[in-house]
Amino acid sequence: MEFWDKEWETKSIKELEEEQSRRLRWIVKKAWEVPAYRAKFKEAGVKPGDIKGIEDLRKLPFTYKRDFIENYPYGLLAVPLSEVVRVHTSSGTRGKPVVSCYTARDFEYWMNLIARNLTCAGIGKGDVFQNTTQQAMFTGGLGYVEGAMKIGATVIPFGPASPERQLQAMKEFGTTSFHAIPSYVLRLIEAMHNLGYRPKIDLKLRVGVLGAEVWTEETRRRIEEGLQIDTYNNYGLAEAGGPGIAIECSEKNGLHYWADSFIIEIVDPKTGEPLSPGEEGEIVITNLWREALPLIRYRTGDIAKMLPYEKCGCGRTHPKISWIKGRLDDMIKVRGVGLYPSTVEKVIMQFPYTTGEFQIVLYGVDGITVRIEVDKDFLKKGDLDAAKREIASRLKEETLLTMNVELCEEGALASEAGGKAKKVVDLRTL
């Protein structure tokens, strides 16, 4: 069993909570030096001296994405700009990107967190690691490229490309591990079949670290069977520093979040009140390590659960969160029912003739059509009417909503190479 930082990855919960309290006091003092934070603290009637430890966390006000937008680009900095050595942003798929800044100390700390992630996924020196995601401002791409260098892997910073070119590089360079967006990996599997590549003969792939979009266990099974690899779900966001917040271990029963570096709360999205382990709610993150840009109780909009604490077979002691179910702004309200695209994906991936790509189209008052890609052979020879009826029936069982099902050929809904697929098109009349 390998660790990147065994001492910190195996600390007792008591020791982790003591460290959280120490770092929380430090980061609150840093935030107090930022005018925007100081104004929020004063409005909430709290000063740095009021925060003795994690038991006082709820005295602090929430931070929202709008705080980043209103203070774009450098208004939340707690250090002079001259001390910032790296600037990244979010992907900007939901509007104006948010800025993530790092001092030299921050950047080194971040790389160690990603090194923990990669080691937790069984990747290390001797692996050939290929990044398939964007490597410009997006934290995920360059974060994993430099993190893989940190652990001594041979790094192929290939970036976004057509699935065919990506696979050709994997074959030629002997890639053993990679970082990717799940919907893009489904495209790799299609391309692999079209090229006639065989997973364990023409390719040496064994591990994939996947994330940056909501996906499901059904999609994981499709990917692992298709490429004959092991996959690890990881969680991060630019506002909190990028990837390196949480990742699965070999037990595959939740994502360890690095509790010496972050405090994670799960709250009721409507009231902001804390929820108990096992209850589904919104992730709230406090970053405990970044001196350039403190982050206090950030409302992520991501929906998940805190899992009941138990000793993990991997030897790590850090708590776990569930997979992300969806985002608050992903949830579609239809006929009074909340619908997450991930629920539709879970159903679709049960049918082996689907490629994994789908699109929910909302129209009229509350009409729903789900467009689903199916493989070429099935489109030519399968019983399409029976397939549509069966999928529609399963969708209704899972969501309580009646949906029209439209089957289309491979590639009709193809996402941009290496990018995030557009899952919802809302054409409803207001």
Plain-language structure description:
- This protein has 430 residues and is an alpha/beta fold.
- The chain folds into two domains: 1-327, ANL, N-terminal domain (Rossmann fold); 332-428, GMP Synthetase, Chain A, domain 3, CATH 3.30.300.30.
- 31% of the residues lie in helices and 25% in strands.
- It is built from twelve helices and 20 strands.
- It has helices spanning 6-9, 13-32, 35-44, 65-70, 104-120, 139-150, 163-173, 182-195, 217-227, 341-348, 376-381, 384-399; strands at 84-89, 99-103, 128-131, 154-156, 177-180, 207-210, 230-237, 242-248, 255-257, 262-267, 280-287, 295-305, 320-321, 326-327, 332-334, 337-339, 354-364, 367-374, 404-409, 424-428.
- Strands 4-3-5-6-7-8-9-13 form an eight-stranded mixed sheet. A four-stranded antiparallel sheet has the order 10-11-12-14.
- Strand 11 (280-287) and strand 12 form a beta hairpin.
- Helix 7 (163-173) packs across helix 8, helix 8 (182-195) runs parallel beside helix 9 (217-227) and helix 10 crosses helix 12 (384-399).
- The longest helix has 20 residues, at 13-32.
- It is globular.
- The model has no long low-confidence stretch (mean pLDDT 94).
